[in-house]
Amino acid sequence: ALDPFDPRFDQSAVARRMRARHTTVKRAILDQRLISGVGNIYADEALWRARIHFEQPTADLGPRKAVQLIRSAHEVMAEALEQGGTSFDSLYVDIDGESGYFARSLNVYGRAGQACRRCGTPRRDDHQRPSAAGSVRRLTRPVLGTPGQPPPRRHARQPVSIESSAAPLSCEAVHEPQLIPLPEVQACPEGSQMIRELTRRYGNTMRQLVKFGVVGGSGVLVNMVVTVVMNKLNGGSINAQNILFAIKGTPFNIRFTVLVWIVAFLVANLYNFQLNRWWTFKSSKHAGWWKEFWPFLAVGSVAALVGMFLKIAMTNPSSPFFLPEPHFHEETGLRSREYWSQLIAILITMPINFIVNKLWTFRSVRGHAPVHTDAAEVQAAE
Known about the structure:
The protein is mainly α. Helix content is 47%, strand content 5%. It has two domains: 11-90 and 101-145 and 156-161 and 169-180, Helicase, Ruva Protein, domain 3; 203-381, no CATH class. The strands form three sheets. The chain has a two-stranded antiparallel sheet. The protein has a two-stranded antiparallel sheet with strand order 3-4. Strands 5-6 form a two-stranded antiparallel ribbon. Helix 5 crosses helix 6. The protein is elongated and about 85 Å long. Mean pLDDT is 73; it is low at 125-187 and 365-382.
């Protein structure tokens, strides 16, 4: 991966890749396949500056917060470089025998027992835990009692973690959330942990599904507008079953309703593709427009073919799936069989459309395979 000082380093692109990962923020920023050169000290300092808890899932980071963290890491490394690096002993010196003095500017690392430089809260011993990257992650806590005295005992009842978005904690966001005893509330840590785990694993996919649904919903409106206009031009939906031509050698024929389905699909498909490319699967990793459009059109065509047969089944009186009287009829209005069959067929095919497009059409920006993407970038950089 590139380091933050490389002219090709794109903070927004790196932030998007970090948010697409299924891990914690500290683990992500230490991963050299994402950002090169960030070590444990600079990661702690960057998290402190950005007011982000090191165990916060990357999928929960907002776009601005993620960019702020990347920018903070760049600032910390730039300041350290100006001050000759971070040296704690005489083993690491420059060519003039001078040690780096950025250690004097550290806000978190190695400052156990000292006052926080942001809020003045005395600090307790750091709690060090090994990270997946093989280094150490640090969690500093404010002292709960008077300096020199043991902290007070917590409430006997189950404490509930309360975090207020209106007012920040008294110290940096790398503190553990403040624990306030609420006797009337029963906590459910197992349920909360399960929700956090599901959000961490599938949050990005669920957000994409919601966006795809919004795009699909607006595409349905486009589809229905084309359907209504074409039927109006043909004298109303009462004429939707008019035969356009017969298929030679078969007892089948092509009716106007099939033409409506095909034209409405093509218009809505182009609309949906462009909006999904700009918004749902937005990324700097997109392939060329035509390279992604043809798979999208192919997937949509298969879905349209399935939908067309579903629509025929719902509008053909001899079909077991025919939409029955008196709930539906051939005339215009809210009970028009022509319009309802169009809408039902779209709703059935849309979820399958999303899954195939995510796994195939927009596979270059799939959020659940960031490691493979980063590995390719490393090879390209080399």
